[in-house]
Amino acid sequence: MKDISKATIDRLPLYLRALRMAQDEGLDVISSEELGRRLEITPEQIRKDLASFGQFGKKGVGYYVNELKHSISNILGLDNHWNIAIIGIGHLGSALANYHNFISLGFNLVALFDYEPNIIGKTVNHVKVKDVALLEQTIKELNIHIGIITVPGQFAQEVADRLVKAKIKGIWNFAPIRMKVPDDMHIVNEDLSIGLSCLSYHITRKPH
Amino acid sequence: MKDISKATIDRLPLYLRALRMAQDEGLDVISSEELGRRLEITPEQIRKDLASFGQFGKKGVGYYVNELKHSISNILGLDNHWNIAIIGIGHLGSALANYHNFISLGFNLVALFDYEPNIIGKTVNHVKVKDVALLEQTIKELNIHIGIITVPGQFAQEVADRLVKAKIKGIWNFAPIRMKVPDDMHIVNEDLSIGLSCLSYHITRKPH
């Protein structure tokens, strides 16, 4: 498989969600035009993105909804049903623990960690918050694949170091710092200010 | 100004943050190589992105940190110091209300809204939660430019309709639905499952 651009990979979850909605509506086949209309993405872009992964759909007919849904799920690795843990159960950690889209994508929320005595022991979305002292042991016992870091910035690097040592497969980082991790560790840095900045860009240029 | 790609605009806030950090470290000048190293973006990409907005930096010297910082801030429209309001003060709304990066980018958090009696009247990050019944009136009184929607999906369209009617400039939507808004309304849909799906994609392909 050739090198796929980040922008293409970012669009796959959008395609997946639109296909699920189409399936819920009872559609068996969907055209790139209809998919594009629903997602505000050009049909050319959709056809180009999907062509990077193989041959999908039938010319003049469209994409078979169920087939394409399974293919994208497979490309994204979602059928691995990764076990995820969240470290830092403040507002953001709690919000993520309750985010239904993760579950519907096939991720399993298996552990939550905090270091605050008044948070440890609480239950969020059916999962009990553990003491972060149990991090390494729990990762091993529950076979946790992905660690989501939602601790304050000053604690984030230490948590990342511990996740790396415990041989986690990937890190999703919400702390506003760039972490130092080994080259072979996959880390996705989430920056919530990007969306707001982009909105600012667009409304600044809005014709009056 | 020619049409700028979404990917380029998405990178501007990253450049801005890196420039601020460089300035805090006392740097006056930074090369595209050093900026690229810090952000894991190629120097060519950085030079290309910035060239879409004009002539920055000096060949063989680099970018003047303070000057470029102000230019990007201006391009993103951050010097407008937009007034923002959050509608839906659950975990996600509370997390966003406490997100320091928004403030440091120049946004003013001026109002919070909810419909739950036990949330109305609470104070989050020095702002008191108002009854959502006061939405239109408050938007006018406090000159609110941007509405952030963090209500559950089934209430999101109604909130969006009210924001549109109240002549807000832009909407940042966290609800997992595609909203119907007029063509001239700027809306950025945030999807928190994209980051996790991308991580899944990468760890699936990780060599063992």
User: pLDDT under 50 segments of chain A (min length 5)?
Assistant: none
Question: What is the CATH topology classification name of the largest domain in chain A?
Answer: Rossmann fold
Instruction: Report the radius of gyration of chain A as a whole number of Å.
Output: 20 Å
H-E order of chain A? HEHHEHEHHEEEHEHEEH
Greatest interface and its participating residue counts: A-B, 60 and 60 residues
Individual helix count of chain A: 9
Mean pLDDT of chain A: 91
The count of strands of chain A amounts to 9
Reading off the top of the CATH hierarchy, the class of the largest domain in chain A is best stated as Alpha Beta
What percent of residues of chain A are in strands?
Answer: 15-25%
User: Structural class, from helix and strand content of chain A?
Assistant: alpha/beta
Characterize the overall form of chain A: globular
Tell me the CATH architecture of the largest domain in chain A.
3-Layer(aba) Sandwich
Alpha-carbon distance between the termini of chain A? 47 Å
Number of domains of chain A: 2
What proportion of the residues of chain A is helical, as a percent range? 40-55%
The CATH superfamily of the largest domain in chain A turns out to be NAD(P)-binding Rossmann-like Domain
Strand order of the largest sheet of chain A: 5-6-4-3-7-8-9
Summarize the main sheet of chain A.
7 strands, mixed
Oligomeric composition of the shown chains? homodimer
